[in-house]
Amino acid sequence: MLQNPRRWNLIVLTRLFNQEDVKGIMSIPLGSIDEEDSLIWHFSGDGKCTVKAGYKVAYRYLLEGSNPRLAPQAPWKKIWKLRIPLKIRNFIWRVCWQAIGVNSALFQMKLNISPECQRCGETEDAQHLLLYCPYARAVWIHSLLALRSDQINSNHISEWITTWFDSRSYLEGDFADWAALQSIICWQEMITVSKEYIEA
Q: Under a CB-based contact definition with an 8 Å cutoff, are residues 185 and 140 in contact?
């Protein structure tokens, strides 16, 4: 960079970069010489790095596995405002956090349990248990929603739960009521599976 006036050094740039890159670099505006550079964190709106902001980025990274900006965001406030018992709201919150006692999670915790679903033999995670297991598919298709759960494509179960609060997902009715109904169905599926495990 050259000073007085402040500008790019074209001779150095042409020696180091190809013509296309030089054009791109030359199009970058140079800041004022009077301003001191400052560090910003692009994951927060105000540019400040805080524990809270770092926690959110880490959580999104865990959900998506790559770029935190592309990770799903569960509608936490809407979940807690549902007109359903607290234990079911808590359950849905735990589902979003992958914190329910499914076989694959228990197996990873080194418990003496198979990671497979006792009903169908597939690996049992939250998505399998609540959506893709043949039993779960039968529950959803025969419910008031008549939902084809085998056609739901979500990278993470919280993505699917987020669609519950999208008013475009349903043609009629209050989407909060639909979300409450789906929450209760998920809760009942988990209760049924738990009873089966206890009886087995």
A: yes
Reported as a single tens digit per residue, the pLDDT across 11-59 is 988 999 999 999 988 888 776 666 676 788 777 778 888 888 888 777 7
Task: Quote the number of domains for the chain.
Answer: 3
pTM: 0.60
- Residue at token pair 């049992």: 124
Residue 48 Rama label (left phi>0; alpha psi -120 to 50; beta): beta
Measure the CA–CA gap between 166 and 96, rounded to whole angstroms. Answer: 17
| Block residue for tokens 């980025």 | 57
Within this chain, do residues 65 and 86 fall inside the same structural domain, yes or no?
no
**27 and 52 share a domain?**
no
* Residue 79: Cβ-neighbour burial (10 angstroms; 0-12, 13-18, 19+): buried
Range of the structural domain that residue 9 is part of: 1-35
